[in-house]
Amino acid sequence: MCGIFGIYGHKDAARLTYLGLYALQHRGEESAGIVVSSEKKIMSHKGMGLVGDVFDEKSIKSLRGDVAIGHVRYSTTGSSISKNIQPFSVNHSKGHIAIAHNGNLTNAFKLRHDMEGRGSIFQTTMDSETIVHLLAKSQSPDHRQNLVDALSGLEGAYSLVLMLNGYLAGARDPGGWRPLCIGKLDDAYVLASETCALDLINAEYIREVEPGEIVFISKKGIESQKPFSGKKHSFCIFEYIYFARPDSNIFGQNVYLTRKRLGKQLAKEFPAKGDFVMPVPDSGNYAALGFSEESGIPYEAALIRNHYVGRTFIQPSQFIRDFRVRVKLNPIKDVLRNKRTVIIEDSIVRGTTSRVRVKTLREAGAKEVHMRVSCPPLRFPCFYGIDFPTKKELIASNHSIKWIKDFIGLDSLEYLSKEGMLKSMPIPKEEFCTACFDGNYPAKPCGRMSKCILEKK
Ligand code: AMP
């Protein structure tokens, strides 16, 4: 997963991009980067780590220009190394090109293999670099046509922001897997993965970049082309379940309200007898609220999150059992002691974190622990940009719900039905990709990826 941001026509472009990336930090914590363009040149600053660690006042001030794009990365293809930090930029006879990509191309391996066979030299291991090669190959003298030509060769998921010789462009694949919206700040235009980035800089939400649409932003304003629209949509349902920020609107609709509806539906399908309902913070917070409202069972926050835990910390010198999990979430013994708790989780991936969490609830005195999950069992890997492990590592692909219940150490475990999940969504069910739940992959991966699928299936 990744977060992308772009702005055109603002003298503080780099600073606003920094703030936009800050709001999108949840979409990728591995690396961050900004590329700016002024009339004559482009400048960039990138680094491994969180936005707040990569940038400081000096680096932001050094990025002068009124067009900028930025990226936060959580790698799903290409390893987590510094040469893979985006935005990826090149100097070419066509001008400066910079790109920030969210999604996975399912034919990247084949494209790259073909291009390398014809002499192309790749600088990174990212699928996103193939787009830059395709742009450079286009024979048209027109930048806009170059982009149309490049994207016409792609399959799979891409939401993109690009800088093309000082213009800003945005594009979404015809399925529209990953979100991308357009905003306006005074006379400047903004593109962002989620609306929470617009909110932070006080930009007004205009609309979504539509699936299959390309927007070109210049002094003339927004120019739209829809060379690839009209195909069946495949919005990622997992963005609503887990990935996007609850205060964002994605695909035109709010995430928080959707998560609450998932919780209400879960309570209807699988009522539980408990003294209170509690979430696994923060991902289960809003489904738990919905569950509590629907069931009438009171809500308690019996696990408290330490908000200051970074990705690394100095380990305790002596062995402390389950330290890594407990440093993040601590149970409140006085709330849990002798109580029957209904704990709401947004999803179970490997089941290993849940197992440790349930153990800490029992150690804190909980008498019964019932888990309700606000999506169906995750059984299939994702090839469109969510980091789901191989089928082997997805606990629900190899085991029954009863087995998982025992493994995690629960008194009962129930998952929301697929129908219930789709019913809770704010847009029609036909518009979603649900491949991680049912294995119906809208775009068949080719090349090495299809081998992966065969191995994983
Ligand atoms: P586990 O019990 O180990 O399966 O962990 C479940 C937790 O992982 C849930 O709280 C989810 O919010 C979270 N989660 C969901 N999807 C992902 C993902 N793609 N990568 C990492 N964590 C995830």
From TrEMBL:
Q: Which reaction does it catalyse?
A: 5-phospho-beta-D-ribosylamine + L-glutamate + diphosphate = 5-phospho-alpha-D-ribose 1-diphosphate + L-glutamine + H2O
* Function noted in UniProt: Catalyzes the formation of phosphoribosylamine from phosphoribosylpyrophosphate (PRPP) and glutamine.
Tell me if Transferase is a UniProt keyword of this record: yes
The similarity annotation says: In the C-terminal section; belongs to the purine/pyrimidine phosphoribosyltransferase family.
HAMAP family attached here?
Answer: PurF
**Which GO molecular function terms does the record list?**
4 iron, 4 sulfur cluster binding; amidophosphoribosyltransferase activity; metal ion binding
User: What residues does [4Fe-4S] cluster bind to?
Assistant: C236, C382, C433, C436
Q: Give the EC number.
A: 2.4.2.14
- Which residue windows are coiled coil? none
Q: What is this protein called?
A: Amidophosphoribosyltransferase
Glutamine amidotransferase type-2 domain location, by residue?
A: 2-220
Tell me the Gene Ontology biological-process terms attached to this UniProt entry.
'de novo' IMP biosynthetic process; purine nucleobase biosynthetic process
Describe cofactor binding as the record notes it. Binds 1 [4Fe-4S] cluster per subunit.
Pfam families reported in the protein's UniProt record: GATase_6
What top-level class of enzyme does the UniProt entry assign? transferase
Give the metabolic or biological pathway.
Answer: Purine metabolism; IMP biosynthesis via de novo pathway; N(1)-(5-phospho-D-ribosyl)glycinamide from 5-phospho-alpha-D-ribose 1-diphosphate: step 1/2
Record keywords, A-Z: 4Fe-4S, Glutamine amidotransferase, Glycosyltransferase, Iron, Iron-sulfur, Metal-binding, Purine biosynthesis, Transferase
Q: Which cofactor does it need?
A: [4Fe-4S] cluster
Q: What are the positions of the active site?
A: C2
- Superkingdom is Bacteria
